[in-house]
Amino acid sequence: MQEHKEELKSGFTTGTCAAAAAKAAALALVKGTIVRDVSISLPGGGQVVLAISQVEMEEQVCRGAVVKDAGDDPDVTHGLTVVAEVSLQPGEIQITGGIGVGTVTKPGLAVPVGESAINPVPRQMIEQEVREILGPGQGAKIVISVPEGERVANLTMNPRLGIVGGISILGTGGIVRPMSEDAYRRSLVPQIDQALALGHRLLVLTPGRLGVKKAAELALPAAAVIETSNFIGTMLEECAKRPVEGVLLLGHLGKLVKVAAGIFHTLGKLADGRRETIAAHAALLGAPRAVIELLMNMNTAEEAVAILHRYGMSQVFENLSAAASQRAAGYVREKFRLGTVMYALSGEIVGYDEGAREIGEALGWKILSK
């Protein structure tokens, strides 16, 4: 009897929900149209249709609401209502957060201190969808709120990151793909088999969509790029079971510093040690106590970029890259070659090792400069 395999359902990011709610509100305000659903453009191309749960019309302002569907992903924001309030104003489109959307209070994030925690890609999505509705030269004020956001914020990383008062409006691809422990084999591992079927024996493992984008910028072959989510160790093990000859770990320094510390499941609530690992490698290169104290008091690993640049110690990231490769090689019992590339949120490549150079050149990357 053939085994039944249930297809896992994808969902929508809070950013996509906010863009849909804002579009529905703008349609009501500008055209007097109340819609039950809207079509939204995804950052990577394509369209998705989201149901609108509510539209409220007033003379000067309209509100649209979307109930977030995270699909089969274990997301604490699943079922929350995302509301967009739109009012017209001359000039530009202004986007801010309301009730249940957090405020950034510490540096090192994609959003400046003092601003609402609405990340750059969701902001672009919201503006694009509303701009389609507005007339030429017309601006708007858009307030995104999540009435239950403050209640669930403590279940996220926001309090530790210094985001207060609610959740963040996130998403780089617009779609939430199932990334649970139980579902990883069905949702992630087939990528490896597909790459091998296409003739690739050197693979690029990256935690998420930003890494996929960076791989494209480096001209690495798209078919060889594998998303791992937080399951870097699992995906390395799966590579070791197959005729993989080399793996290039490519990711934000905050993820790959954990690998350098021997942490192969990178979900923040399970294990950390980024500050300690960066500080230890800085100390090995002779960093003075003041620098080590700065590193140990960071809010995010991203802050290490400015600190180490300032003190002329950028080599720390090269050493961390080599350490990540060494740890990963040991993890798979030297079954294949390893290399590591770390980048910052700005997109700057902050460190890579000799293994990365060798594998990258074999994959035909655009050569990096240090």
UniProtKB/TrEMBL annotation:
The keyword Methyltransferase applies. This is Cobalt-precorrin-5B C(1)-methyltransferase. One of its GO terms (biological process) is anaerobic cobalamin biosynthetic process. One of its GO terms (molecular function) is cobalt-precorrin-5B C1-methyltransferase activity. Keywords: Cobalamin biosynthesis, Methyltransferase, S-adenosyl-L-methionine, Transferase. Pathway: Cofactor biosynthesis; adenosylcobalamin biosynthesis; cob(II)yrinate a,c-diamide from sirohydrochlorin (anaerobic route): step 6/10. Its EC number is 2.1.1.195. It catalyses: Co-precorrin-5B + S-adenosyl-L-methionine = Co-precorrin-6A + S-adenosyl-L-homocysteine. Belongs to the CbiD family.
